[in-house]
Amino acid sequence: MPNFCVVDAETGAVLTMNRSKHHRTMPMTNSASLDDYIRNNCYVYTTGSLANERAQVATTKFGTKFIPRIIPDKKWRIREECRLQDGEYIPLPDFILNALWWLENKHTHNDHFVHVSTEKSDMIAYTPDEKSGEQDKQTRTTMGRYLTKYFSEILDGQQIGDIAARYAAANEKTCCNLRQRPKRLNVSTVAVQVHA
């Protein structure tokens, strides 16, 4: 989940705190050093509603309109990779991950972190762009729509339809109830099963 700060609605300056308890603002840019500055010197909120409440208080107190803003997460790729590795996300079926067209076109999908949707197992979810990654927003769609959008120059309509149908059939068998799947794998249990 993203963190939030409070910014001046007109200038985009971040509401900060200092030791004398006087509030000041600082221009917001996209540099990594500013992210560290915000986390160490600003009020950081874990939900948008908390940030919105604080923005309303600051607006009343300082006479300038303040609004909540998501703090960009520049390490989003690591976060998404960890979600795939630790089982929070269910990866796509092997028949897709091992397909030649998938392997040869990593530049197309590598930053998408495509996985089975955590909300609807017959769909996939992915991170479409940098901004969505920083804001921890995934797009949910069907396999057919995803392949049409990103692989239509490589796969024809018949191939896309066949892959989408096979994906739906595979997920119907393996992902019927997403609420029952474990969040993390127990490594010792897996090792015992492999050697048994």
Keywords:
single chain; 196 residues; alpha+beta; 2 domains; 3-stranded antiparallel β-sheet; two-stranded antiparallel sheet; 10 helices; 7 strands
What does this structure look like?
This protein has 196 residues and is α+β, with helices and mostly antiparallel strands. The protein has two domains: 4-70, no CATH class; 76-195, no CATH class. The protein has ten helices and seven strands. A three-stranded antiparallel β-sheet has the order 5-6-7. Strands 1-4 form a two-stranded antiparallel sheet. The longest helix is centred in the C-terminal third of the chain and has 18 residues, at 157-174. It is elongated. The model is unreliable at 175-196 (pLDDT under 50).
Query: Using only CA atoms, what is the Rg?
Result: 22 Å
User: Unreliable segments (pLDDT under 50, ≥5 consecutive)?
Assistant: 175-196
Q: Report how far apart the termini are.
A: 39 Å
Sketch the topology as an H/E string, one letter per element: EEEHHEHHHHEEHEHHH
Mean pLDDT: 79
Total number of helices: 10
Oligomer: single chain
Number of domains: 2
Mind describing the biggest β-sheet?
3 strands, antiparallel
